[in-house]
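User: Here's a protein and a ligand (zinc ion). What would the complex look like?
Assistant: Let me lay out the input and then the predicted complex.
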Amino acid sequence: MSKEYEAVIGLEVHVELNTKTKIFCGCSTAFGGSPNINVCPVCSGMPGSLPVLNRAVVDKAISIGLATNCNITRNSKFDRKNYFYPDNPQNYQISQLYYPICRDGKIEIETENGKKFVRIHEMHMEEDAGKLIHNTFTGETYVDFNRSGVPLVEIVSEPDMRSADEVLAYLDKLRLTVQYLNASDCKLNEGSMRVDVNMSLREKGTEKLGTRTETKNLNSFKAIKRCIENEFERQADILDAGEKVVQETRRWDDDKGYSYTMRSKEDAQDYRYFPDPDLVPLIIDDEWLARIKASQPELRDEKKERYAREYGIPEYDIGLITEYKELANIFEDGVNSGADPKKVSNWIIGETLRLAKDFETDIADISFSGKNLASLIKLLDEKKINNTIAKQVFEHVFKENVNPVEYAEKNNLIIKTDTGALAEMVKKAVAANPKAVADMKAGKKKAMGAIVGFVMKEMKGKCDPAEVNKLVMEELAKL
Amino acid sequence: MQISDDMIKYVAELAKLELSDEHKEQAKKDMSDMLEYVNTLNELDTSNVEPMSHCFPVANVLRDDVVTNSNDRDNMLLNAPDKSEDSYIVPKTF
Ligand SMILES: [Zn+2]
């Protein structure tokens, strides 16, 4: 009978910080565009060039450190990690080994067995590498240094996770924290968040750690889950067969659904870290720390509590709205503009998410103003538009952030309160639909729809269906 | 300090250098001399000296997060041994 195993998982997470410029030079970090346009002597590793640290990188790193309950290293510095690869123009990466900016943090996650803490071993600042583009046709490799020198933080957890679900809970918490801090957009599929999984198995009930593997190239939460399940099976089979797991780095192939060996421990690299003489020490004094502390925004957990307390909307709504800070911002903006919290919430978790799905819009890219949503709700409350029109107008709020009042007026969508005109139209509808009228008289209530529909169509939807119903009934009673 | 054959082979590998036997001997001698030279520093008693992480008494040299560079691609590519219109070309990697 095979033994029962427990997974022991730690993560190394790289997060690309969303500063305007690179970590050590004044080159833009803007995405897209042509290769090598945001490159200077520093980030292309020209001899004699000198790196100068970007203050905003330190600010964001401290901010993440504080939000993840880390100790901030007051005397920090940078080291060189030496290796040769064409994406690394200096032949070393500037990183932090000896005095990383943050240490000893923890993140609370929800698991099926309740809450637990995942400890953070350390977090350091470093620079990203360039990008290699392989041309299979010519067999040449092109190098683009636009990403070279883009700031990263690497967050190294302790091996505190025991399942794929715990890993996903930790990553989700980390992602949301960093996004709320406006330190990164944390998109796995675009590489602004990269996850390496360190994993070993041990027999349940034992303490001693087994030999671990590290798996790279995980570009989605789904891939991470599959990879962990796959690696569990692989290591369990090896252990069941009485063999030993080899310490190695593996690469996940999501199309094929398995991982393969990238490099084993024998050819592990010797990075020969040493202090970077080009960069002077970084001292974080009380004042600096206090400044970051004072500017920490409200994080998700705090927001969740406050929404329940101040707005009394359901927990389900709160969960969906705070899942993305962009939605939370729209919600708060809407409520602060005077709209009813539950109504704002309904538009966000209903129409907004539906449109995002229909138009394949990334939720993080939704940017209409809550104020416009609030004025749409006001138009509805005042019965100046009906639900169908409201949805039409909202689509334009969603896409182009139009002002609903201006838009509805310009497109002649406001319900005419001119009851005389409406009454005329109802008379016309009754006259134009003799069959429906006859059916109604014969007791077929469904025929009403044809008459009301006629009016709605003629009035281009700018009327309250309930009002139309009432007027039609009155008109029929006269006959 | 004596540098072993294995050590010089390892260092050469890390530095991606191919050394002839003659060069290897020379490198062994040079490296030994360097370490010897550095060893002289160990003669100084530093037990009462605060360790420093940099040779200059300066800290926190920082810049603001403002873009100061613009597209200088053509100049940047001037030094490249091989290039395309917009990129460096390097031997094929995998
Ligand atoms: Zn640069």
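Summary: The pocket of zinc ion is lined by residues A 22, 25, 27, 39-40, 42-43, 149; B 69 (CB under 6 Å).
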